[in-house]
Amino acid sequence: MKPDYQKIISNVYADILKKPNSGKVPNYIPEIACIEEHKFGVHFTDLGLNNFGCGNFQEKFSVQSISKVFALSFVYEKLGEKLWKRVDVEPSGNPFNSLLQLEADHGIPRNPFINAGALVICDILLEICENPKETLLEFIRDVAEDDEIFFNEKVAQSEMDHSYRNTAMCNFMKSFGNIHSKPNSVIDLYCHLCSIEMTCEQLSKSFLYLANGGRKPTDRRQILPYLKAKRINAILLTCGFYDESGEFSFLVGLPGKSGVGGGIIAILPQKYCIAVWSPKLNVKGNSYRGMKFLEEFTTQTGETIF
Ligand code: GLU
Question: Average pLDDT, stretch 275-291?
């Protein structure tokens, strides 16, 4: 029997609200350090386009690394398998901005979701698009079926002013020949990619193509071939949660992606997408309440990919 998602979401949301909200809002990007830390939103959309939201699900927040999934989808579709010569598909088991690992791996990032991997994806976007920022936004608006999605220029600038580590990684990869454009242009595009703002509702709707074998369930358009969607979901499962991807899989059991803005998107292939937002992060950089919510949600629905 199909679980009563709406009831489970409402109950789990109410339970989590009663418990202490642990963790910290990250302070290394000043523009997102000032976010109100008690915000908490959830939005669920299934392939039958049933929708349900709780709390601050219609409020925009900085999706940060979640948008790396859109950039990867776009680039993978255009480049095909040769993409994997420049970025690997292995979990990193290290912090998302580790320089140490990049040195050991000779400038080939472990996966497209750590910062180094996303910088390579941005470099490719600069090579294959005339106006990469516009192209990215168009792609995201297309999968979201919503034109009200924008970069937050203040957040992008704030990140650029503090992007010492990302710049170091970019220069380092350039020395290995794995960055082709000017590092400054790559950083500019990367910071804009991270600055995209969306609501939980927009997020859960926009990820439906990955729950549906690469095809949008609304107009049936194939955004990615099935094989590519399958592979992106695999990378989401093994690499979507920094060096806590194993733990997320262990506790929640779904492919997904988090961002330091406190958002998490999780996907149950063939069924639904669910987005959660709560800005306080645990020590590994994942939303504290987001993880708690999703753990309890999949436990109560009795559905995971396992
Ligand atoms: N813009 C953030 C950074 O580069 C993204 C981090 C994240 O959400 O994982 O550090």
Answer: 97
Per residue in 54-101, pLDDT (tens digit) is: 999 999 999 999 999 999 999 999 999 999 999 999 998 877 788 888
Question: Which of left, alpha, beta for 21 (phi over 0: left; psi -120 to 50: alpha)?
Answer: beta
The pTM for the full model equals 0.97
Ligand 1 pocket check for 194: Cβ under 6 Å: yes
Q: Where are the domains of the chain?
A: 5-300
User: Separation of 306 CA from ligand 1 center, angstroms?
Assistant: 29
* pLDDT recorded at residue 214: 98
114 Cα: distance to centroid of ligand 1 (angstroms): 8
Is the beta carbon of 115 within 6 A of some atom in ligand 1? yes
Could you list the beta-strand ranges (E) of the chain: 41-46, 51-55, 61-62, 150-151, 196-198, 256-258, 263-268, 272-277
Mean pLDDT of the chain: 96
The C-alpha R_g of the chain, in whole angstroms, comes to 18
Rounded to the nearest angstrom, the distance between the alpha carbon of 291 and the centre of ligand 1 is: 18
- Name the residue of 195, 260, 284 whose CB sits within 8 Å of the most ligand 1 atoms, as the mutation to test its pocket: 260
Specify the CATH class of 5-300 in words.
alpha beta
How far does the centroid of ligand 1 lie from the alpha carbon of residue 151, in Å? 15
Q: Which residues of 217-249 are buried (b: 16+ CB within 10 A; e: fewer)?
A: beeeeebbeeebbebbbebbbbbbbbbbbebbb
Residue 97: predicted pLDDT = 80
With helix as H, strand as E and coil as C, how does 166-204 read?
HHHHHHHHHHCCCCCCCHHHHHHHHHHHHCEEECHHHHH
Q: What are the backbone dihedrals phi and psi of residue 281, each rounded to the nearest 5 degrees, phi first?
A: -105, 150
Q: Which ligand 1 atom is nearest residue 64's CA?
A: 8
